Amino acid sequence: MKVELDPGGFLATSSEELKNELSNINPKLEQSTAVQYALNPHGKLIRPLTLFAIANALGLSGSKALVTIAASIEKLHIATLVHDDIIDDDQWRRGRPSLHTQFDVGTAIVVGDSLIFETTAWVKDAVDLGINPRSALEILSQFTTAGQQLCSGQQLESRMTSSLSFSYTSYIRMVEGKTSALFELAAVCGAILANASEEEKQRFFTVGQKFGIAFQMQDDLLPFFSDREIAGKDLLSDLRNKRPSFPLVVAVELLKGANRTNLLSILDSETPAGADSFSMLTEIFVKAGVLQKCQDLLGQTLEEVNALLQPYRKTEGGEFLVQLLHQSARRNL
């Protein structure tokens, strides 16, 4: 999934420093080659860019602390992707073999764990980075909370998948854990480092939450609007694994009669769904208005974030965040 947005201007230096930090891997570690594969080439870096933009909107730019915390968030994000691919046995990630496919499951587990442990390595340098003790503790607490939310969201997805109990309410709860948690972390850490008020922290927490929901909605829609090269993942993965993806959840609630029967028969089947099932569902989803309903719900979520960001549109960071939001959540629709 390629987001065509150049992080130039106020982001240019921070973006380059971030990429350098993500490329700085200890060669003495046994897992260094696999870690290098996981982290490079870099992905879209949307969560770090969110942190930079929010900090700028609140008056802070060019801080080494921003780069360090942003890198930690990106490493945590990559760790979750590595572990998710193992759980789902997904063979592709970002248009190439997933880590456990390229190496092996054991190596992938170790790499994910290694990246998680790295996310708090900055603590020993907090003072040199200009992070006061109170803020450092608050940021650590945010990382802990995000980690717990990520695990909770993953567990909820597993429960929904095994029981085929799909509802829109449960889907949003799952996404708030699996996806929004890291957007919230980026948003709140940016606000903390910029010495924001409690009211501003809460506002940007909500921005992160809604951004994460919109991002996941669109990620779930990609198989219906793009090919594997653009999506960067196996288009049949959600259907084959019977995951509660956005279109499937909306379809379960919206479809009636024969269309609903066909959908449930595919989900109930012990045989993994293939390309024929996917093509049939795509046709049903288009004709029955499922994909249009999904786009409408996505649009509503984007408008909610826009309203929250309106007071900051005159700042470089605020305007960049609006553009990042729309280009991330409207890719290939």
From TrEMBL:
Pfam families: polyprenyl_synt. Pathway: Isoprenoid biosynthesis. Keywords: Magnesium, Metal-binding, Transferase. GO terms for biological process: isoprenoid biosynthetic process. Its cofactor is Mg(2+). InterPro entries: Isoprenoid_synthase_dom_sf, Polyprenyl_synt, Polyprenyl_synt_CS. GO terms for molecular function: metal ion binding; prenyltransferase activity. The keyword Magnesium applies. The keyword Magnesium applies. Belongs to the FPP/GGPP synthase family. This is Polyprenyl synthetase family protein. It comes from Corynebacterium amycolatum. The lineage of its organism: Bacteria, Bacillati, Actinomycetota, Actinomycetes, Mycobacteriales.
